[in-house]
Each structure stands twice: as C-alpha cells, then as structure tokens.
Amino acid sequence: NNPVIGDRSFGENKYNVALKGLMYMNALQDNHIVACGKHFPGHGDVDADSHLTLPVVNHPYNHLDTVEFFPFKVLMNEGLGSIMLAHLYVPALDSTKNQPSSLSPKVGRDLVRERLGFKGLIFSDALNMKGASAYYEDGELEVKAFLAGNDMLLFSDNIPVAFEAIKKAVASGRITQAQIDESVKRILIAKAFAGLNVSKNKWVEEKNITDVVVAGGDGTVS
Asked: Which listed residue (51, 65, 110, 157) is catalytic?
C-alpha cells in the first residue's frame, strides 16, 4: 500500500536491506562519494506520499528499533557518511501534533546524534514537500529543520527568507553559534572526503559527458 517508496527500497527483510545497503554504501564511499541512508527512521511502512501529506507510522519503539532502524544502525557502524530524515509522523518518537521526524530534535539530535552516536552529515528531506511545508511558514520551517539537527536543508522554497530567518535565530540565541559551527565542520569534513577542499575548481567537463559516464570513457559499460 506504499504509494511513494515501492522499488526504491531493497525490500522488506531487514537483513537483505542492510546487506545490499552496505554494498552500495561501500561502492560509493570507496570512490569518495558520500553515501546517504534514507529515509530515517524508515519510510517503508506507510500508505501515504510525503510529497503530498504527512504519513503516519504507528509502530511502537521496540518495533522501530528492531526493524526500521536495523539497516541504518548497520551502515552507521560501518562508516556511513550521511543520512536523510524523513517527513513522517512517528508518535513513538515524537507525539507533537503535526511534527514530522525531519523537524524533530527528539529524532535528529536525541536519537540519531546521542543514542545512535551518528557523527556524519544529516540531510533533511526536501523542505518543499507537503509533509513538512504544509505546517510551517518559509523561514520558520528552515529554522526548525536546523534545530532538529539537520546540517543540510534541501529544497527550501525561499532561500533568502530562510537565510534571514536563520540569521535572526542566531542573533536572538535561539540557534547557538556552536550549533552552526558543528554543522559547518561536518560539511567541511564531507567536502574534504569528496576531494572538494582543493584550491583548484573541479568543474565537470560537459563535453561528451554521456559517453564518459555511460560507457566509462573507454567503450566499456560502467
């Protein structure tokens, strides 16, 4: 009954998902591409599309911990570079009305950072999706996303408004400079891992890019 994930998932068996996810992660990160596990805490068992509304996951914490979290924890323990927080209402994690997990400090900071000990980047799911944007105005939405523990805020509908709102939140003390510094440090570490910390710009050469990517540049299929 899931209208949004379908074959975007490796399956419904947690061991299968963890194993395939781990192989995918290693293939990316062995080549200095930061892998991202999505969508935490688990988008598989829903019957609504978070692009259009806020799906509900009603499982108790023990079920979430032993099933949904399992592949994420395996990959985190093996060096996963980043995860994405989903727009899901999960009362077992945060029962605040209309509070998606992507905007919940109980999920991003308390669970992912503190209890699971994750040190990598945290991405929000796209903030223009109705699972988040239907409940908060531009600016406040991005402030809440950052306060929830997201280092990278994806698809803000109004970047200038979001930027000014975050600046005001820092000036007022609602967001601390230490929180900003922590996120910036994680972003810089990820850029260094991906080789983006060098002084020479590494722009993609667009000429013949399809042949290079699809055929590996030497006629072999990659």
From this structure: 51
Nearest-angstrom CA–CA distance, 90 and 93: 6
Q: Render pLDDT for 36-65 as a digit per residue (tens, 0 to 9).
A: 999 999 887 877 678 877 888 899 999 999
**Given the residues 45, 94, 125, 151, the one annotated as active site:** 125
Rg (CA), the chain: 18
201-215 burial, b for 16+ CB within 10 Å, e for fewer?
A: eeeeeeeeeeeeeee
pLDDT grade for 219, boundaries at 50, 70 and 90: very low
Judge whether 43 counts as a catalytic residue: no
Task: Tell me the pTM.
Answer: 0.86
CA 140 – CA 109 distance, rounded (Å): 18
Q: How far apart are CA 190 and CA 152, in angstroms?
A: 12
Known catalytic membership, residue 87: no
Q: How far apart are CA 51 and CA 14, in angstroms?
A: 25
Backbone φ, ψ for residue 84 (5° rounding): -120, 130
CA pair distance 82, 123, nearest whole angstrom:
7
Tell me the backbone φ, ψ of residue 74, rounded to 5 degrees. Answer: -60, -50
211 token code pair: 């042949």
